[in-house]
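#onboarding

Welcome to the new folks! Below is a worked example of what a typical request in this channel looks like: someone posts a single protein sequence, and someone else replies with the predicted structure as tokens. Don't worry about understanding the tokens yet, we'll cover that in week two.

Example request:
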Amino acid sequence: SLPRAALLQAAGKKNSSNLLGLTEAELQEQFVRGDGPGGQATNKTNNCVVLKHIPSGIVVKCHQTRSVEQNRKIAREILQEKVDLFYKGEDSDVFKEKKASEKKKQEKKRRAKENLERKKHFKEMQQLDKK
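Example response:
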């Protein structure tokens, strides 16, 4: 069983219709100035969306694009995934997909390590054959 913080970090990775729904009445939305690189485009426009799910207290800040509408859409998707993780925990599709991708990554690492060992062994055998 993972802590809630680790579960919430898995969000933003899933495209599923099996997530818990959000109603606009549960959301509190603000538009603020974003931060980071971008110069005048960032410093003079309020295109960063801060979305809060009032019942759970989860807050999402989205400033991935220069478009307010796109940021609103992305923020809602991420928030929906985080709320789903918050309430369902390890039964959430988002959590299951994250676990599956981690397992796949570890398997790929293991295979790469085996191949490296095989190559190393092969080179050693070639060195012995030359002598």
